[in-house]
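Cross-check.
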Amino acid sequence: MATTYSRGMVTTDPVTTTVDLPALLETLSPSRASDFKHCPQLFKFKAIDHIEMPPTVYQARGTTAHLALQRLFDLPATERTPERLFDLFRQAWAELKPEEFPTLFGDVEEEREWGVESLTILANYFGVEDPAGLEPLDRELDMTETLGEMTIRGILDRMEEDGDGLVITDYKTGKAPPERYAIPAFFALKIYGLLIRRRTGRTPVRLRLMYLNGPTVYEIPVTDRQLDAMERQLEALWAAINRAIVHDDFPTRVGKLCDWCQYHDLCPAFGAAAAASPTPPEPTS
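Predicted model, tokenized:
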């Protein structure tokens, strides 16, 4: 989901001088808000410089699995079986590969191994829940909501209703973090909870992170007090991003995950001299 900006001008009289002002936020997605919270420089690489990195096998798996799981609930309940989900994954990959991942694999065998591993991970879904007994209210819900001066946009994986109320579920095809590190992973989902409350007038009762590579499911309850706090945090982030844009100041935040960041070689924290360049290095084969 993209983040968009507005650009302004300053005009003075009697001599008219036009000065371009930095483009401030027009919209913000939960994922980009998470990026800025995690590392402002990461946000800059993605949302300001628009540096595109070659897609990874993990991104391909996540995108394809999300589409397959979305389509699974188009089927009658009795047909929501592992075999049908596998077929949906293969069909989704056949659609996505030519446009989004045409050069991802070096040969057919490499792609086949990725496919087998992907289906093994996807099969774990049926150990988490029985889709035959579930009818989501929404899937891949495209949301744009105004909160005060902010416009927040995002795509919600799934929302259902159980006996307690609304539940928001987010699929993950990667491995779950240890439980003691799980709470920060709910940051984006809390924003979606805020958007759902804004749109429907109802507060979700639970947020669920479903990690299929395991599988592991983390759940937390939600209250209005938590969502009110999230809205204040989001307002502070919005203001901080605009300040960073105006002053062109996006500090790095070095941590344990830096070695796995796609932008590691461009990052000034690791000696990159041309971190602001919008042109990434040529990928090596």
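Residues 273-285 have pLDDT under 50 and may be disordered. Helices lie at 30-38, 40-48, 57-72, 82-100, 108-123, 187-200, 224-247. Passed to J.P. for a second look.
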